[in-house]
Amino acid sequence: MSMNSVPSSTSSSIPEALPDSVWAATAPAASETIPLAGDVTADVVIVGAGYTGLSTALHLTPGTDTVVLEASEIGFGASGRNNGLAIPTLAKADPEEILRVFGPEKGETTINLIRDSANLVFDLIRRHDMEKAGEQNGWIQPAHSPGRMRLVEKRLEEWTRRGAKADLLSRDQLSNLIGSDAWHGGWIAHQGGTVHPMAYARGLAKAAAGQGARIHTKTPATALERGPKGWVVRTPLGSVTAERVVLATNAYSDDLWPRLRRTFVPVKTWQMATTPLSDNVRKTVLPGRHALSDTRGDLQFARYDWQGRLISGASLIFDMNSEERLKSIVGARLKRNFPQLGDVEWEYVWSGFLAMTPDYLPRLHVLAPGVFSWLGCNGRGVALATAMGPVLADLARGADPEQAPLPIVEPRPIPLHGLVTRLARSDLWRRRRIDGVEFGG
Ligand SMILES: Cc1cc2nc3c(=O)[nH]c(=O)nc-3n(C[C@H](O)[C@H](O)[C@H](O)COP(=O)(O)OP(=O)(O)OC[C@H]3O[C@@H](n4cnc5c(N)ncnc54)[C@H](O)[C@@H]3O)c2cc1C
């Protein structure tokens, strides 16, 4: 695969391997799955086995005959590669903005869905006994400037007014909680936390399969067409005919529904894991094992895995010498934020794609009668993709789309999509400049 492009499974029937990430190396083994062979029928066919597809399958079963098709492995896409921060907010829009854009009715239902989204993640982990899949000990968003602290106060007020469990953190409180004086204060959303991304994906798959979902890996959906008995999804060795289809392919969407791919920009982002840190260091750096990501446009973030590795990452404008540059950039950031860390050693570096929409808002689509999709996590998909599962499951069971919590919108291709995609990463210059200008202001 070219390092700059999302794999296209419709153009190749050879599934790609999982990236060499700390998550792939340390997750419990996946339940055994096999490629689809032969022609089968189902009530619902789901394309994509990430959090969206698997949460949809989990909420459809038992009771609805469900087939999931995954081009590669469970969690191959963003779901097995992310930082694992389960965050019950959107990346940019706060409740008042969501109400302004989605209107009073859909705005309110969308806000409720987002507010409860991280709770759903941890409820599923507990309910289905997912081994070592998550810790619900809060997401902290520190403010990198006094100006961003005012935004944090407004954000907290808007979310707590709508029932979110969250608290403001003064500079001293934050410093005591995370072991750093680098930020100006912040807030903690108590329902947030961290997941082991791949353990969670595999846990969802095991739970859905346990309830009767038939999950086929190494099975790219190569064509989708309307037949006399319903929608037919073709794969290299067979097909699934079903009344309803859920496209859960998000940033990894290929040409299966060509228009979809042009409605978002796939943005590459990098993740990295240190070697396990000593107990002494861990007592002073994020001692509460919180999820942490700050207010910068060029986000700074960190969390621990179960073995005490610190997992962080960054975006880059160019791929040249990426690993070396990332190690130096992210190592310096961590050291600046937590001087007690000293120089860290890196054990894993990997990358993945997330789907950005022009207004940073999620999109729910009815692509044709009986074909549903959502995308546009804008970097907040651990909780949101999970919460879209029940929404898509309701639609796939025949619920009235008008009753969905999010507004149903037309898929609108982005003009000059190829060019916009190529230039998207250079937006990092602008974000870094804003982060810098805001510093101290
Ligand atoms: C590096 C990185 C870090 C991130 N960090 C965070 C974070 O800390 N917190 C957070 O909230 N969000 C984060 N995100 C976003 C989050 O991971 C995603 O929003 C979420 O995982 C999306 O899940 P999904 O199931 O919708 O899509 P995916 O997990 O991407 O799944 C889509 C699947 O569809 C499959 N597929 C595509 N085409 C076909 C086809 N034709 N046939 C069959 N299968 C197909 C793909 O192989 C893939 O497995 C991050 C994303 C990345 C990339």
Present as ligands are: flavin-adenine dinucleotide
Radius of gyration: 21 Å
* C-alpha end-to-end distance: 43 Å
The percent range for helix content is: 25-40%
SS-based structural class? alpha+beta
Number of helices: 14
The backbone outline, from C-alpha atoms, is globular
Uncertain ranges: 1-5, 7-14
Can you give the mean pLDDT? Answer: 94
**Count of beta strands:** 19
Largest sheet data: 8 strands, mixed
Strand content: 15-25%
Structural commentary:
The chain has 14 helices and 19 strands. The strands form 3 sheets. Strands 1, 2, 9, 10, 11, 12, 18 and 19 form an 8-stranded mixed beta sheet that branches. A hairpin with a 2-residue loop joins β10 and β11. α2 packs parallel to α8, α2 packs across α12 (381-396) and α5 (117-127) packs across α12 (381-396). With 441 residues, the chain is an alpha+beta fold. It binds flavin-adenine dinucleotide.
Key terms:
33% helix; alpha+beta; 441 residues; binds flavin-adenine dinucleotide; eight-stranded mixed beta sheet; globular
Give a brief description:
By secondary structure, the chain is of the alpha+beta class. It is built from 14 helices and 19 strands. It has helices at residues 22-26, 51-60, 95-102, 104-115, 117-127, 146-160, 171-178, 197-210, 258-261, 279-284, 322-337, 381-396, 417-424, 427-438, and strands at 38-47, 66-69, 85-86, 134-135, 139-142, 166-169, 186-189, 193-195, 214-216, 223-227, 230-235, 238-247, 265-274, 291-293, 301-304, 310-314, 346-356, 363-368, 371-375.
